[in-house]
Structure formats: C-alpha cells, structure tokens
C-alpha cells in the first residue's frame, strides 16, 4: 500500500472518530474546570429562526458543550505550560495562547476612569521576590510548585468607587438611628504582587481612601487594609481562588467588632476544620495547570459555646441571574461540609449566595445586624455570633423585599456594607443597594447598565462574578458537592 493511501486512511479514521464523538457522545452541562454552566440547547421559535439567533445559539451550544471538553482543555493547559512567550523584561512570561495583557484585556469590573500610569506602593506589603507569568484572561501567576498563587490585576483609580460611599451615606440618611458601617475588602493582588510585576496592577489604597473621604452623616469606616497587610504573611487569602481565606475574614470581623463596640472572640473560641486538596476558581479563570497542581487547605472556623439557628429564604434565578421566584423560610445549618478535593468549599458558608439568611444567636444584647455583601462577605457572619443577637445577610444581587420595611420590621440596629473592592467599584452594586430602599416587596428587576469603559455593557451575568466581570467564566456559587451539613 502506498504511503499516500496510508496517510489518507489515517486522516479519514481520525475525522470519523471525531465525528462520532462530537455527534453521538453525551454532552456535558457543567464544566468543573471553568466552574460554570455550559450553554444549553436553545428553545425554538419562528422568530428566532427568522432573525438568525436560533442557528447562532445552536452553534454556540455545539461548541460550548463538546464531549470531553474539560479533558481537551486540560491537555491544552499542559501544552501551554510548556510553551511560554518571554516579554524580555523583568522575567515575566506569557502563555502562548493567552493575549498580551493591556488596559483593555486586564480583568477588572466596570471602572469609569482611566488606569493609573504610576503605582504608589508605599503602603503595600512586600512579598518575597517571585517569578511571574501572565496566564489566560490576564491572570498573574506567581511562585512555583506548591506555593503557586494566582492574582487578579486591579484597574481602578484613586478617584473611583465614590458611588459605594454614597450608597452608605444614603442608608444613614434613611436610617438616622441605625449604625451604618462601610468596609472595602482589598483583594490578594494588593499584598502578594511581586515588585517586578506591580505595574500590571494599580494600587488599591487610593481607592479605599476615596471611599473613606466621601463617607458622611456619621457613617463609620471599617478600614481593614492595614489589618490585612499586617497579617499578610499568614494564610489570609486563598492561593487558588479569587476569594480571601476565612482567616482573612476573621481579622476583618475583629476590626469591625472594634468599630461597632461589640464583644468578639479570638480563634480559641472556634473549632478549626479543614477541607484538604482545595483548588478554587482561579484554575478555571487562568487555565494554568500550575494552579491545579498546587492544591491548598481550605481552613474555616466554627464557633463554639454559642447557640444559633439559621433560617433561609432561597431565591430562584434565571439564566441572566434575575430573581424569578422565592421559596418559603426554612431552617438549616450555617456551615455546610464539603469533601476533601471539592472545588465548592467556599460555599461552606450558607451554601452560597442566592438566598436571604437570618441567624438568631444566644448573644442577647439587643444588637441586630444586616450585612450587605458580595460573596467575600459570606465568610464574615460566622465570627459575629458572639457579637450580635441577630444577623441578616443580604447579597447585593438578590433581595426581593423593601429595605425600609425590612429594617423596621426586624428592628435593625446596625448595617454593614462589606464588599470586595471590585464589587464595591461596580455601579451595578451600589445602584442595587440604593434601589433596595424603594423597591416594592416581591419585585426584583436588576437595572441593566452600559459602562463607559471600553463601551462594554455589563449584564447581571457578568455581575454574578465578584471579581472578574471581564472574564467569560461564571462562578458556580451553588453546588451539589456538599455532603452532610454541620452545626
């Protein structure tokens, strides 16, 4: 047989094999690697067929839900890890398949101002000098081996985030007899970005200062920046996830308790629990195999010596993260247990975001707290069971009641805004908080917005992701991986 015929047979066999796999094998609905729901087959209508959207959506479904998607992506990661592009400066390399980061491609929320050209690093924690590389979606990867850390560049400025402060001011104006507090949570890039790569991310302290300087009417600042910086040598941020670690939330809760003037327990008042082999969201965002190969311990703390009951109202959301229904109140646990190796361990706290949470504790001191938060804030309430009689946890994306009625009916004494700096910067976030004050109970219509940055329209789907709306993946906050729950 001639060589050409052998070659032809091989090509035909490969093509036939791929045709069989992609047309007959089951298609996945969720990507564990990317931590997101995959595109579903579109509903047919004559209108969608006529305008061409049906065929476009079928094409998107076909490519997004290909069989063995995660396997092929994992293989691609291994190849990309071997093929790097050097920038020729400061030992920073890029993945061969990743775009060179620019102001347009660096992940950030919806910043309205231009990016700062020079960074002020006066107040930043200085980590050990690390090699750095830029992975998919502009994620910065530092360190090697088991110490690899993934960081998300920050693009905000010292004149931004004013709306977040104004939302807190509006709450104080609306509730003059309620203590209102404002916390901006810095992200890990602020404390762990090596000096050689610092120009890739803007400093966060100027933004936090801008928020503090715009607080009025007696709103109290909870400035946790230096608190976290002083503990940056500890495991206060997750290496493989965009969230902070529960230990970071502990130090933030302690600072808040000091400002609020309420009791607080040190860590000896908690039981330490661990989920081993945790790899979080930054694996899917960066698509960097070194993150997968550097699992970490997810360590959290369960309060002891205090009684508490947790009541939830679950929200039903559609594919655009609009609330379309809500369930009846039910009692469950605050802390959910996850198996070793589970990528959903951050949902230990309340099981996720799409719910209204009400905790009643045995700390009868008349103080009743609302926490207005993103998913970073989920790790805070468990440290305050000794501090407040009641704690109500409300996510910036999901709330169907009228806030004025809710505060009055529940005799709230304290309101804490606790959002990571990306989320606090988002106009979608603070507009939601203001809207909560006037919306009718049972109605939740997120305000669509068009941002000036790069003329990008930010939808609720992008707002679902707390830290990387420029990244096309969405964190799956709710997960079926939780096993038995614990008190």
How would you explain this protein's 3D organization?
There is one protein chain. The chain is an alpha+beta fold and 487 residues long. It has helices at residues 3-24, 46-50, 53-64, 69-82, 162-174, 189-192, 205-213, 225-230, 246-260, 282-286, 289-292, 403-409, 421-425, 427-436, 460-464, and strands at 30-31, 36-37, 84-86, 92-95, 132-134, 140-142, 149-151, 179-185, 220-221, 270-278, 296-303, 308-317, 323-326, 330-332, 335-338, 355-361, 368-373, 390-395, 414-420, 449-450, 457-458, 482-486. Strands 8, 9, 12, 13, 14, 16, 17, 18 and 19 form a 9-stranded mixed beta sheet that branches. Strands 3-4-5-6-7 form a 5-stranded mixed beta sheet. Strand 6 (140-142) and strand 7 form a beta hairpin. Helix 5 (162-174) runs parallel beside helix 14 (427-436).
